[in-house]
């Protein structure tokens, strides 16, 4: 899928509405429309990369920025002190449904591992 067909590229470009939580130079953070936790925010790159592996191969420093923004989101959402999870799905077999790299910031409830 090219960036022009990508739902997240369209959100970044303002063609599809979303609830924006934060904006930074290289990322935009939006509320997930199907939240899996009380806090569920997606940190999306403005530039199109299909998944976390492709971002790592690009070696552009964007993963650092995603992690920084995820922490800023967690602070703003009030979950930084209690803890939060930052999740990347890479590939359809593990649940990636939008093939544009994005980190899921999840918090606001217990998420012990392994699940009990």
Walk me through the topology.
Elements: H1 7-12, E1 20-23, E2 27-31, E3 39-45, H2 52-58, H3 62-77, E4 84-87, E5 102-107
Motif (Histidine triad motif): 100-104
Domain HIT: 7-116
Organism: Halostreptopolyspora alba
What would you note in describing this structure?
The chain contains three helices and five strands. By secondary structure, the protein is of the alpha+beta class. Strands 1-2-3-5-4 form a five-stranded antiparallel β-sheet, with helices on one face. Strand 2 (27-31) and strand 3 (39-45) form a beta hairpin.
CATH topology: HIT family, subunit A
Largest sheet, in brief, is: 5 strands, antiparallel
Question: Which regions are unreliable across 5 or more consecutive residues at pLDDT < 50?
Answer: none
Beta-strand content estimate = 15-25%
| Structural domain tally | 1
Helix content: 25-40%
CATH class: Alpha Beta
Mean pLDDT equals 91
The SSE string, one letter per element, is HEEEHHEE
What is the rounded Rg?
Answer: 14 Å
Report, as a whole number of angstroms, the end-to-end distance.
38 Å
Helix- and strand-based class?
Answer: alpha+beta
- Give the beta-strand count: 5
Architecture per CATH nomenclature, i.e. the level-2 architecture: 2-Layer Sandwich
| Gross morphology | globular
Strand order of the largest sheet: 1-2-3-5-4
User: What name goes with the CATH superfamily?
Assistant: HIT-like
